[in-house]
Structure formats: C-alpha cells, structure tokens
Recover the amino acids of this structure.
C-alpha cells in the first residue's frame, strides 16, 4: 500500500493498491493525470506503509513541475526514524517485524515487543501472558512465580509439605526446611512418628516403669520411627542402650539395632548421619559408656566425662560415627591414634569384678591394632598403665580389665552400652512428670520441633 499526498494545505490523501514498484513514472502519472497536481508548487510525499524505506526512490524532481519527498509510515512500531527495520531491538531479540508493523515472536516469547517469556518473566515456573502477568504452576506463587505456594517448600524445587493430618497442627510447613508443625506427641518432618507411648531410650523406659523393669528387648523411638533394642535394666542402675556386641578380635561398627547380647552385632550410637534423634543422644553432656564382659558374671566398667569439644570425645565419638572396623595396623596415623588425652575429664565412674588402679580424670586412649585401649592418667602405653581394652591386639580376647599387677580379667564376648539420664521423648516438663511416676527436679533434654533437644530445668 502507498499513500501519495500533495504537499499543500487541505490536500487529498489517496491510497494506491497493487503497485509492484514505486517508480518515478507511476507516481508522476498518478499525481499529474489523476489528481491534477501539475503545478510547480506541488510536492508529493510517498509513504510506504508497513515497510521501512525504499531505496529505489529518492528526493528530487518528478517532472511536470512536481517534486517529492519520501517518508516512513512507521506507526511507532518496528521502524526507526531513519526508515530502517530494527527487528532485533524492537522485538527484544526474540521476534521479527511483520508487514503490519508488529512483532511475530519466536516460540516461548509473548508481548507487543516479545519482551515476556516463561523463563524470565515467570522464573521458569509458570506461563507468561502477553500483558506480562504469570499463571504459576502448581506449588508456586508470586507475581513472577518466584516463591513456593502455601503448603509447599524448598524453592526453586517446590515440593508438597505432606504434613500428617493426625500428627501436625497445620498443612503449612516451613518454606525452607519443610518441617511441619507437630503436635506434642509426634515428631519427624511430616509429623508421622508418634512418640506418646514410646520412650526415646532404655533409661526413659526404666523411668516410666517407676525404676524397675527386667532387662530385655523394648520398643524405642528417637524421632525417626520405632525400633526394637535390647536394654540392660540392672547393671549400675540400669537403663543402658545396647550398641554392639563383640565376639572376635577386631572391633567393628555398623548400623544394626542390637536386640541380643548372645551373638555379634555391629552398631554405633548414631548409626547414620541423618538420624537426628540418635545423633542428639550421642551428644548429651551426661553420656556414659558401659563395657561389660557378657561371659563373666558381674565384670564391667563405666566410662564417663567425655569432652564436648570439636576434637574431643575420642572414645565416644568413635562409637557414635564409625561404620567399619578399627584398623588392625599398629601405627598411630590416619584414623588410628595413640596416647590421646582429648577427653580431659574422661574417668572410670563405676566398676565391678575388677579393681582399677587409677580413678583420676583425664585417662588416655589408644585406637589401633583392631581395638581400644584405655590407660591411666600417665598416658603410658605399657601394661602397668593398662585399665581396660576392647579387642586391642589381633590375638587378644574381646575385653580385658586391669593388668598383671592387680589381677587381669578377660572375656570372650564384650557388650558396649550407652546411657544418658536426661534424654527424653517429652517436649515439656509436664509431660515428663505425667509419664514418670518418680520424676525428680533436675535438667532434662526435652525434644523440640524437628527432633532436636534442649536442656531444660524442670521443677517437679
């Protein structure tokens, strides 16, 4: 389409259709013969609609007293003032101009100038409309779909909270962690683990029973689901969680839950790094370890005073996190260590069936030759300094107490137990008091939302 306009006031505008080219002859003929613009003062303006510029026509004389100018019919769309196409700039680099002076957008882009897209406008989590608004995918919200909707968590990969209807107080979880708000008797991310009738440790089982119940297998729940575990309810006040049973000459660890002391069982206190309840239990400041010779009646010892420093808790930390056997190598490098005193308060808290020669604090430890050796406070590594060991030396029995000077006692089957007297399932002091008939005033590690525990003084 071409507009030809006379350059004088009140001139008539006529549109020509079907012209293949804008030659001087066509324009001159039309202007002179059809419109009668044949005087020297007339100026013809040629406008090319929907196209920018026409290199075949330049300003100049048309003959018969006519002159002309060329103009650009850009309509404020794809053309610049210099009558040149600017597809890339005007269509945001994501489209091309059409004869109608609008943008035809490439796939995935919308808008008058192709300025909107699902990826940039809606963060890749929704569909962009031509006005720049977003229709967000399920689980996403916001003007640009840049947040998780209520009931979802974990942006940018929003997942449904999945909060338990029976265990949670709401269907909305923490937008970052996904932790649902649990009722007091439930735990776990989705509040599916019921704790109201299940103790978190053998000690708590014992306290709920009023301080007296037989040794055996009990149901335990630390927040990641119920499991069966053997509990020693008699030795040194009872309430001991069985960790592992050693019958050979190489101390091993694993992820088993031990339900018997009669055969080998390879466990660890925390089992895996993801079990929050187990890991929290192992970090209790009142942690105790019982080393018991199962084939020797009444022979055992209790170690306590484990450090809470980042590089301490050697003996307890190894029982908590190791997942394989201690190296049988006799060197003191790598995971092995010798003459360690990183638990400055480590001591023998109780014993039976043998007599320690050093009950001071700061006992030294070795971990090599397939097992553990706990010495006295002098840190000597010879037999006079020996107090207790577990499978230390590839040809030695499972456990040994004392030394030749004070009468050494050995056993072929060693059981390792763990105990914390303050660790609880309960989240309030009132719950402790309600569950334990003889609960006394003192500090309890009470469970928080998400499975962690906080020391709380309870006045009973």
């Amino acid at each position: 389409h071409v507009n030809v306009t006379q350059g004088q006031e009140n001139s008539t505008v006529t549109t020509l259709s079907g012209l293949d080219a804008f030659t001087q002859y066509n324009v001159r003929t039309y202007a002179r013969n059809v419109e009668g613009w044949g005087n020297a003062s007339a100026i013809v303006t040629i406008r090319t609609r929907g196209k920018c510029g026409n290199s075949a026509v330049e300003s100049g004389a048309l003959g018969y007293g006519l002159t002309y100018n060329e103009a650009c019919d850009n309509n404020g769309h794809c053309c610049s003032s210099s009558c040149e196409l600017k597809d890339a700039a005007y269509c945001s680099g994501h489209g091309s101009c059409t004869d109608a002076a609008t943008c035809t957008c490439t796939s995935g882009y919308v808008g008058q100038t192709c300025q909107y897209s699902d990826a940039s406008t809606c963060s890749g989590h929704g569909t962009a409309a031509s006005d720049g608004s977003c229709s967000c995918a399920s689980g996403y919200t916001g003007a640009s779909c840049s947040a998780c909707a209520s009931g979802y968590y974990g942006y940018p990969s929003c997942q449904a909270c999945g909060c338990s209807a029976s265990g949670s107080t709401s269907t909305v979880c923490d937008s970052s962690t996904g932790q649902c708000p649990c009722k007091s008797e439930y735990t776990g991310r989705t509040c599916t683990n019921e704790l109201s009738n299940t103790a978190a440790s053998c000690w708590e089982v014992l306290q709920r029973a009023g301080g007296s119940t037989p040794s055996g297998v009990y149901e335990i729940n630390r927040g990641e689901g119920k499991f069966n575990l053997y509990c020693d309810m008699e030795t040194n006040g009872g309430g001991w969680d069985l960790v592992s049973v050693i019958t050979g000459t190489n101390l091993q660890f694993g992820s088993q839950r031990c339900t018997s002391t009669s055969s080998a069982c390879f466990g660890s206190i925390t089992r895996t790094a993801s079990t929050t309840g187990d890991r929290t239990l192992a970090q209790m400041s009142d942690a105790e370890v019982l080393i018991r010779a199962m084939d020797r009646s009444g022979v055992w010892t209790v170690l306590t005073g484990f450090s809470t420093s980042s590089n301490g808790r050697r003996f307890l930390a190894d029982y908590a996190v190791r997942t394989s056997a201690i190296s049988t190598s006799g060197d003191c490098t790598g995971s092995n260590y010798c003459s360690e005193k990183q638990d400055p308060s480590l001591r023998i808290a109780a014993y039976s069936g043998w007599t320690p020669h050093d009950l001071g604090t700061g006992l030294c430890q070795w971990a090599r030759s397939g097992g553990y050796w706990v010495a006295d406070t002098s840190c000597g590594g010879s037999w006079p300094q020996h107090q207790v060991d577990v499978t230390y030396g590839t040809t030695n029995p499972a456990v040994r107490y004392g030394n030749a000077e004070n009468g050494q006692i050995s056993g072929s089957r060693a059981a390792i137990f763990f105990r914390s007297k303050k660790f609880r399932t309960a989240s309030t002091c009132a719950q402790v008091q309600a569950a334990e008939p003889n609960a006394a005033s003192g500090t309890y590690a009470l469970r928080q939302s998400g499975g962690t525990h906080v020391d709380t003084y309870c006045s009973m």
